[in-house]
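Problem: given the chain below (529 residues), write out its structure.
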Amino acid sequence: MTLADLRWPLERAARVHGESVAVTSAGRSLTYAELAQRVAGLGAALAGLGVEPGDRVAFLGVNSLAHLECWLGVPAAGRVLVDLNTRLAVEELAFMVDDCAPRVLVHDPANADLAAALRDRCGSLEMLVADGAGEGLTYERWLADAVDGGARGPQPAPIGADTLAAISYTGGTTGSPKGVMLSHGNLAANALHNLIITGHRADDVFLHVNPMFHVAGIANVVAATWVGARQVVLPRFDPAAVTETIERERVTLATFVPTMLAMWLVYLDAHPDADVFSLRNLHYAASPISPELQRRVCESLAGCEIAQMYGMTEAAPTVTHLSPEVHRRGVAGEQPYASRLGSMGAPVPGVRAEVRDPEGRPLAPGEIGEVWVSGPNVMLGYWNRPEATAAALTADGWYRTGDAAYADAGGYLFMVDRLKDMIISGGENVYSIEVENALASLDGVAEAAVFGVPDPQWGERVHAVVVLSDASAVDEDALRAHCRGRIAGFKVPRSFELRTEPLPRSGAGKVLKNPLREPHWRHSARRVS
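Solution.
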């Protein structure tokens, strides 16, 4: 057995905690023995469809039992899971499917039409499996046939640390999404890192509410499984449903993004009798948090350990951790904890994170540079993108994050800006060039510059400065409608500045965004929110 073998966490849980409830989803509960049987059947079902080891299997849907089982079962069977973001436009999804060529797509009822459209457009897709009732091949019938037949499928080739387990797509500065290749070793290492910093136990109840199509949404699936904790799955975030689920299931562990936290606190303020005090540990991640929201979380959930995680898909995803102790003592005003509340935390055990200059030399505390990350959780590279891989990964295995930061004397990292032209809005990554390309494809748009500006609800919102060739031809509604047909809704600009004068440019002709951004960030100590 190696730590890279993702079959082991579930096998251990089935042996040690076989009769304990493993997962509760949509009113249905399974024990770990039952879950292990179904996951083994999933491998047999894939083999029955002719899906070979190394072939890609896509999933398109909200959080569900099937979604969790695919994360546990597809890689364990030696196949590669490609989890697709349901919020993307069909053109974006079709690019991803054509790029990695999955043969099978599992989808939920809400995305049946989108799945059919992808099958019609993408030549690699041979089979659709519906996670729900209906005609044709359904997930439950497909799985039941394999489980009832006692089939386990042929054993895949030995799975080592570098065996590809999943491809997770992220945007890119070139405008084309990149498939992040995560290995068994990456996902297993990340699980162990999370076990260390969170301390999952068999008597814990973990709430999965972040979308599982993001790596942050499944970061704790393997960790919770490894120790035999009970896992509760919600299809999506809703403050009332989250509160009711915590009360009913006595949830002890959860991870939110800051936007979710802000919405949830508003709900809790309006429902002071809500009993959410079973929570013993709550993490937030995916985007920076405002000092005010951070303080409100600590005060509203007194008695719960509050912690922050920083990471990225390329690191599977955990890199740093701002501990409950820093939150507790920092909110009380104790130094140096109070000053570190604005940091991303310190590297988790097993991961190295350093601030370096453009030549890769480590910088002294307080000096601003780029965050470089190294560890067993760092990706294999980008699918079919050797040049992008070479630009992101150094020869000795360091990943260049594109985040500008500085470190204090204790190794705590403080983000200052993003070197990549990227916006994080509501926990979703938006690459500016994708939006700029969509805007520029509309007749009447001469050029566009897109960047993030502070937003009290979303952290950052997508803002566009658009130069019109004919000031009367295009308005904001036309720009939004045009974008919605080409990119995901969360990428569509929420605010615009329309102008007829050209964008500022350098002597080499490059658009200068800093003068455009500066008025929006003038009163902020950092250029991210």
